Amino acid sequence: MCEIRLAEKDDIGIIVELLNKVTLNLHQKSINQWKYPWHFEEINIEIKNRNVYVITIDKLIVGTFSLKDMDINEGFHISNSNNLYFYRIAVLPEYQGKNIGIKAINYALEISRNLKRTLYLDCWAGNIKLKNFYSKAGFNYCGDFKEEDYMISVFKYL
């Protein structure tokens, strides 16, 4: 059974390992979604801030995502700050295609609805498969924006 919970300090090693595995898998497919390797310090701060969630099946962590208040300066050209940012969504390659991503999205949507806030997410603009997935999940495409030396596609769910 798939369950979602806030990440705990003891989960950090597994989360970093999972993110590294997913990132390398993306890079092998020429999808430059994230930089490799992930750093414990960054994830540890996010866990302390209660932004990181884990997705488990029979207590095994198979995915992770993060959710936080979205700063108006996130770079998305958004007019107000009553938003949530849903990010760093990762599912182990061997568990992809099993509706785990949809479960994570529904979990984040429930939180945003309860808080009466708009949910935003983004991805590398070149990841056509992921962009289609977000559109099919009900997110509205907002546009492509420059992020460092690449473009991101931004989506929102009202």
TrEMBL record:
Domain of life: Bacteria
Residue ranges of every copy of the N-acetyltransferase domain listed in the record: 2-158
Signal sequence, renumbered to the chain: none
Name this protein carries in UniProt: GNAT family N-acetyltransferase
Gene3D superfamilies in alphabetical order: 3.40.630.30
